[in-house]
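User: I'm putting together a small comparison set for a docking exercise, and I want a reference complex before I start. The sequence is below, and the ligand is nicotinamide-adenine-dinucleotide. Could you produce the 3D structure with the ligand included, as structure tokens?
Assistant: Of course. I'll restate your input first, then give the structure tokens for the complex.
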Amino acid sequence: MQWFEALSEGGHEQLLLASNPEVGLTAIVAIHNTALGPALGGCRLLDYPTEEMALQEVLSLARHMTYKAAMAGLDLGGGAAVIVGDPSVKTEAMFRAFGRHVASMGGRFIAAEDTNTTVADMDAIRRETRWVVGTGAGLGGSGDPAPYTAWGIFHGMRATMEVVYGTPTLQGRTVAIQGLGNVGFRLARHLHEAGASLIFADFNEKRVEEARAAFGGRAVSPEEIFGVECDILAPCAVGGLLSPHTIPSIRARVVAGAANQLLECDERDAAQLQAQGVLYVPDYVINAGGLISVSGELRGWSREKSMADAAAIFERAKQVLNRARLQRITTYEAANRIAEERMAVVSRLQRLRLPQERARR
Ligand code: NAD
């Protein structure tokens, strides 16, 4: 792979390659866009088979975060980090070394949890730099972002019901949830409390049994979940599962869930969903509750404010769906346009030079 070509093709600003062999750290930090503010992004730990796969992933995640932060109305840009390694072999030293690399970026990148990294890992990074969020309550952090992600998705789903049926209520609606992990299980609780009927699937049978005991509902196999008849299909497992292989089987009116980068190919798959009459809420619009909450740590976090800010996804989802309808474009295109317009407008404001900036030169 041509690294500089990959960087410029995606419109990325910067890459940092970090290596500390004595503590087993090999990491890449990508900054996609800082038009709105410093780049905040997850720190993913995976045993990538090749350097190219690690690079592709970090570039794609960073770009995704730019759009997610812009759509969420945050003063943040998009970035991401990948640590290449076996997730079962984590050490304090590895995360502290990573923290020192993050510190070297002087606040241009702010780290957060992602796949295979935890609050405890963010706490280790925090010992070396303040440019990390999602730390534990003991360090003044907000902890696990999943409750806020689930709460935001719940409100995004209410918005879809208003657009489709004229009322946001979930009472009596049927929601099929794929994946009952940190987000999916909490989402199931909100939906159950709102009076929805649930259908769920997970490879983890214990989670399925727990969900049935707590919320009633019906379990189906992971192979069947995309084809069930329901009002909302909520993919809350892993990304990339909606593709020309799976989309034709969907019998839901709406697709709205937690999984990041849910569509195998955004433009193509969003168009196919639209052609099938399925209303798709782009993942980065609806699953931003966790980002919204952890970013609150930069200003002074409170649970109440995070819940209220995540609930505002109701209005953003409606804005995207209405824009798509009015302009006859896919919801994916509508979301991108809204995010890009916000970045352009805010960037232009910076042309108005402020007195203190002049003084610094
Ligand atoms: P998790 O690992 O806690 O849960 C995922 C669940 O999905 C697990 O129970 C797993 O057994 C199940 N699963 C995996 N593949 C499946 C399949 N094919 N069919 C059925 N079940 C399957 O993850 P999470 O934190 O709940 O996140 C879920 C998704 O949401 C991920 O894609 C994540 O990137 C995304 N996301 C999470 C957050 C957050 O705050 N945790 C924020 C934004 C986006």
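The chain has 14 helices and eleven strands. The two ends are 39 Å apart (CA to CA).
User: Thanks, that's exactly what I needed.
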